[in-house]
Amino acid sequence: MGGPDPGEDDSTYTDFAALIGMRQQWRWGTRFTPFWQLLGGGLFSNGEGRTCSCGQAVSVTYLAVQPGVGITAMMTPRLGIRAQADVQIAGSTDAYLQGTSIFPRTTVGAVIRLGRTR
Questions:
Q1: Which residues form the domain of 89?
Q2: CA-based nearest residue to 82, from 105, 112, 118
Q3: 83, CA 20 to 30 Å: which among 14, 26, 32, 96?
Q4: Does a structural domain hold residue 85?
Q5: Residue at 80 is within a domain
Q6: Three-state SS for 96?
Q7: Is residue 65 part of a domain?
Q8: Number of domains within the chain
Q9: Portion of the chain with pLDDT greater than 90, in percent
């Protein structure tokens, strides 16, 4: 993630998320598999071009939770498409920069199944 901050200045933030969690899926036959997931971990944000009153670049660490839902649609036994939507909810661990950030997203990608297929 990265891009201009819509706030008062033209700083650019670069974010890195390290999340782990679980996914539950249900198989409806061999073609469609809906799922939900819940991830948790840390989000690390660095502000390029923005400094605090101490003259250093702004760097913020967040605790993050990311729930999401999606579906996998297999076109052949090995190739398919996965679509999902999730929202990352992150709260700052810094006492000075308290606040919550919410990052919704949607993704679509290819699925390649390896190993034995059912």
A1: 2-112
A2: 112
A3: 14
A4: yes
A5: yes
A6: coil
A7: yes
A8: 1
A9: 47
